[in-house]
Design a protein that fits this description.
Layout: H1 2-7, E1 13-14, H2 16-21, H3 24-37, H4 46-53, E2 58-59, H5 68-74, E3 80-84, H6 87-96, H7 100-103, H8 105-113, H9 118-133, H10 141-162, E4 168-172, H11 177-184, H12 198-238
Parallel strand pairs: 1-2, 3-4
Helix pairs in contact: 3-9, 6-10, 8-9
């Protein structure tokens, strides 16, 4: 959906990928999540959302999807597209993509070594998923699947109960440009609808993302490593 919205002039479209590219965004999302779900801190206002999302024309995926009531209150005239998916295939997709950083031992190590990027991303993901679904434990797979699918259904019903019908589109993957463009009042592009396989695309990006964070971790820890080596060398030299 991100590619489709950007293809008809609703870009940039804010997406989870933006948190990877702009790690400082995670700080604001965590602040907003704690205020909403843990009652810690100040609830976000229109000014806060403008600061975080004001450069975008649309949003998709989490973290924004965790704030449907708040974003609707801040932008009451904004249109909402409810992308209908099979809940089981949605869960399988999540299990192989956005949930991986939460369970990866490599990611846990990176979150310690790379405080700037991984150290922000993993805690944010954990907080989002625990807040929305209640269970984030790979050893409780059946329970986690049920909890996530229930949370998925709740989020959709919440959107339907809050957003007026005239501002809401029930969109099924595979319907192409016509219903989307009619709803948004744009012309149908003279190009194929972007049938991007989000799961496969994300899976391809994971190694690149991990490499970026390892490089960031190496740069962050190089001074300490050099210092340790220097001290070690000095000790050995004077022995």
């Amino acid at each position: 959906m991100k590619a489709a919205l950007e293809g008809i002039g609703y870009g940039p479209c804010y997406h989870m990928a933006d948190c990877i590219g702009n790690p400082l965004d995670c700080d604001m999302w965590v602040e907003a999540l704690k205020a909403k779900f843990l009652d810690k801190g100040r609830k976000y206002t229109r000014d806060d959302w403008d600061q975080l999302l004001g450069h975008c024309q649309s949003v998709a995926d989490v973290p924004p999807a965790a704030f449907i009531p708040e974003l609707h209150a801040a932008y009451p005239d904004a249109k909402v597209i409810i992308v209908q998916r099979d809940p089981n295939s949605w869960y399988t997709s999540c299990r192989g993509t956005v949930m991986q950083p939460c369970f990866s031992k490599q990611m846990k190590l990176l979150s310690f070594l790379d405080r700037f990027r991984a150290g922000r991303l993993q805690p944010m993901l954990n907080l989002i998923f625990i807040s929305l679904f209640g269970v984030l434990d790979s050893s409780r797979e059946a329970e986690m699947r049920e909890a996530w699918i229930d949370g998925y259904a709740r989020a959709y019903e919440e959107a339907r109960s809050i957003v007026p019908e005239e501002l809401r589109l029930e969109y099924k993957l595979g319907q192409g440009w016509e219903p989307l463009c009619k709803f948004l009042g744009t012309e149908v592009p003279d190009q194929p609808f972007p049938h991007v396989n989000d799961s496969a695309d994300f899976a391809k990006k994971i190694p690149v993302m991990m490499k970026t964070m390892w490089i960031s971790a190496a740069k962050a820890n190089l001074p300490y490593l050099v210092g340790v080596l220097a001290v070690t060398g000095a000790v050995l030299w004077y022995r």
